[in-house]
Amino acid sequence: MHVYIYDDYVNKKKYENTLARLETRITDLGLNGKIVRLDVMKNIADAVEGEMRRGAKTIIAVGNDTTVNKVINAMINAEPGNPSSSDIPLAIIPIGKENNDIASCLGISEGESAGDVLSARRIERLDVAQAGSYYFISSAKINSRDTVLDIEKDYSIEIIDPGEINIINLSTFSNLPQNALSCPQDGLLELYIRNKGSRTITKFKPQETTSLFSLKKLVVNNKKFSLTIDNAQEVKMPAEISVTKKINIIVGKDRHF
Amino acid sequence: MFKKQDEKEKIKEVETIIGPSIRVKGNFNGQGNIVVEGILEGSLKTNGDIFIGDTAKITAGIEARELRVGGEVNGNIKIRKHVEIAASAKIMGDIECASISIERGAILNGKCSMIADQKTDDKELKK
Known about the structure:
The structure holds 2 protein chains of 2 kinds.
Chain A: E1 2-6, H1 16-28, E2 33-37, H2 44-53, E3 58-63, H3 65-78, E4 90-94, H4 101-105, H5 112-120, E5 122-131, E6 134-136, E7 139-143, E8 148-151, E9 155-159, E10 163-168, E11 189-196, E12 208-215, E13 217-221, E14 227-229, E15 233-235, E16 239-251
Parallel strand pairs in A: 1-2, 1-3, 3-4
Antiparallel strand pairs in A: 5-6, 5-16, 7-10, 7-14, 8-13, 10-11, 11-12, 13-16, 14-15
Chain B: H1 2-10, E1 14-18, E2 22-30, E3 33-36, E4 39-46, E5 49-52, E6 57-64, E7 66-69, E8 72-74, E9 77-79, E10 82-85, E11 90-92, E12 95-97, E13 99-102, E14 107-109, E15 112-114, H2 118-126
Parallel strand pairs in B: 1-3, 2-4, 3-5, 4-6, 5-7, 6-8, 6-9, 7-10, 8-11, 9-12, 10-13, 11-14, 12-15
């Protein structure tokens, strides 16, 4: 049985038509299932765990990146002893044009075409990274100011100019260097640092510069700024970040990896 | 300016980029291709190729498959295949490689030893 987890924001009037067309398409494709609507009263972790125990064939997150992050954390926490996470695949139906970078990266477009991706059932096993006690599939970011990075290997990184630090598993960045290696299935994370260079006499407009490192584990610490994962959740510091789980995800043919 | 940008982008499948705003201290060991445009102190080793940009300052021994140098290097260099030294390069250290090209204007203070390229040796043995 397919279980559709509807985030609470999709109940707004502006998404009525999109949802109606989507549900018609899902019916036409024979993918009907149970709908679970999240609200203030309903705990997502209990809802997902319950459906997994009742033998759900697929868990489908209907919403945005925040929804996907909540569902992934619920699925993994439902089977904490399983190092490979659950074999039940996760599917995504993005609703809304904003904050849907994960679906876009997986080759899933908004609306009815997401139903076609679900029907094709192309499954890939992707890494899931852990930051503290939270899991994320896309990336974690933090301001570079006063951030201390403790790398597992025997070197240290000092960031001279202000900027942003991103720890990437599944890259949703369009301006990652084209020749850079980034794969969400290799067990590694990419540390992507974007800096604004300093002004000099000859350079009035500082140019943005980038740095990239591949690593298995790092510890991030910052007393002032917090770490945000998948644009959804803030994590307390210090946070140890590494790939600890795997998850099956239904992807589209236009995925970015 | 455009030629230098093209040269950096010729390197395919870059595993590591040390940008101009980064200082790395310690022993950096990689497997793939590395681009250095910032500061590195310690040692730099990889099984792939290294591209050292014009703004880079390296105080380290370097070992790689191929190397292109445009910045400052203080340390010995050991390359299995080809070393390309650009006009903007300043190298204080010894170089050991199979082949080398040096642009006019580059500064090199150190010994240069040519070691046999592994492929050339195999061809001679087959003859």
